[in-house]
Design brief:
The complex is a heterodimer of chains A (112) and B (114).
Chain A lengths: L3 E2 L4 E5 L4 E7 L6 E7 L6 E7 L4 E4 L2 E6 L4 E6 L8 E8 L7 E2 L3 E6 L1
Parallel strand pairs in A: 2-11
Antiparallel strand pairs in A: 1-3, 3-8, 4-5, 4-9, 6-7, 7-8, 9-10, 9-11
Chain B lengths: L4 E3 L2 E4 L5 E6 L6 E7 L6 E7 L2 E5 L6 E5 L5 E5 L8 E8 L9 E2 L3 E5 L1
Parallel strand pairs in B: 2-11
Antiparallel strand pairs in B: 1-3, 3-8, 4-5, 4-9, 5-6, 7-8, 9-10, 9-11
């Protein structure tokens, strides 16, 4: 069963606008959440993370929001740049380990 | 500093055969995790090795097995290949097992089973 879900498989956005990616999880044991970015022919690379004790974490143009009661998180990219065009994966684990459960990914295309 | 490398890049095997995939972890990393990414899906956790011992396993049958060597490089072995084993196999290394230890992924091995 899919413990981490990403709907809306693809997203197209104009350069300079905001990209918003959503993720839902079902396992209450998850308390650490991550976003990875993947380019073709490369492995996923870590982008940003958030602990369950926080509701927001910011790193430059990337912000992750966590709503623990709704088991929902989102990634905001602003402003979007053409180099942000990639597949974005939402992932989760519990604090005791780094065995990740991934969503299916969202393809983001930033149009110049 | 060398990143995570995997070999081979691509591999074609026949159903019923056995395959070995290799992963060299990032320098100094003692933990290796393997993931299977089927087409259109996210990576799925297969198992993790910490200091040469298996340290957690996902929902994969026993024909998926692994090894970690004293230099922390790792192998993934799959016996009796099935068509559904066709996927991208990713390995990731980290400097520990806890959630705060960032995992660094290799580029993957694309396995096709015919």
């Amino acid at each position: 069963d899919q413990q981490v879900k990403q709907n809306s498989p693809s997203l197209s956005v104009q350069e300079g606008r905001i990209s918003i990616l959503n993720c839902d999880y079902t396992n209450s044991m998850f308390d650490y959440f991550l976003w990875y970015k993947k380019y073709p022919a490369e492995g996923p690379t870590f982008l940003i993370s958030i602990s369950s004790i926080k509701d927001k974490n910011e790193d430059g143009r990337f912000t992750v929001f966590l709503n623990k009661s709704a088991k929902h998180l989102s990634l905001h990219i602003v402003p979007s740049q053409p180099g942000d065009s990639a597949v974005y994966f939402c992932a989760a684990s519990s604090y005791g380990n780094n065995r990740l459960a991934f969503g299916k990914g969202n393809q983001v295309v930033v149009i110049p | 500093e060398t990143g995570v490398t995997q070999s081979p890049t691509h591999l074609i095997k026949t159903r019923g055969q056995q395959v070995t995939l290799r992963c060299s972890s990032q320098s100094g990393h003692n933990t290796v995790s393997w993931y299977q990414q089927a087409l259109g899906q996210g990576p799925q956790f297969i198992f993790q090795y910490y200091r040469e011992e298996e340290n957690g396993r996902g929902n994969f049958p026993p024909r998926f097995s692994g090894l970690q060597f004293p230099n922390y490089s790792s192998e993934l072995n799959v016996n009796a290949l099935e068509l559904d084993d066709s996927a991208l196999y990713l390995c990731a290394s980290s400097d520990g097992q806890g959630a705060l230890y960032e995992q660094y992924f290799g580029p993957g091995t694309r396995l096709t089973v015919t």
